[in-house]
Amino acid sequence: MQQAADFLDESLALSELIAPLSDTDYTQKTAFKDWTIDMVLRHLHFWNTAALLSVKDEAAFQALVSGLTDALREGALPDHEYAYFEGLSGRALREDWLVMADRTADVFAQTDPSQRLQWVGPSMSARSSITARLMETWAHGQEVYDQLGVVRENNDRIRNIVVLGVNTYGWTFANRKLPAPGP
Prior knowledge:
Blueprint: H1 2-18, H2 37-56, H3 58-65, H4 68-73, H5 77-84, H6 90-109, E1 116-117, E2 124-125, H7 126-148, H8 159-175
Antiparallel strand pairs: 1-2
Helix pairs in contact: 1-6, 1-7, 2-3, 2-5, 2-6, 2-7
């Protein structure tokens, strides 16, 4: 699946951007909800782990996401992710996240793109799942680029995100029991 390779490339680009940072630099707050760079990486790492488990071990996936309802409702998702990784931060977090991104890309590259995978919401295809990981990496990565004052040079892998958005446009309204707007 090309989307798996594109996800890994986006992860590598973000990793390269933050590679020179010191552990203290990871505590910089971004413009997104005052999340730090550490919080961004933990968030990406947690959901990459969830995506990998959705392919490899459905029971482990269910165990991972079972306590999320309260955290999501209370706005405590970053605290939940922090506890899950036992406070892992800085350069050590970057290394752990990058290893998981590589493993996730490798597994998805070998997965049938149409295979249905469990998720926190409705199930989705493996292709949509890895594209969602690419989208999250790209979107949350932007807050890091902005914080560090670096202008990102986008490339063709963003196409996957556009296709996902077009394909799920109507669903986002149906999911909320609203009529989709016309042209």
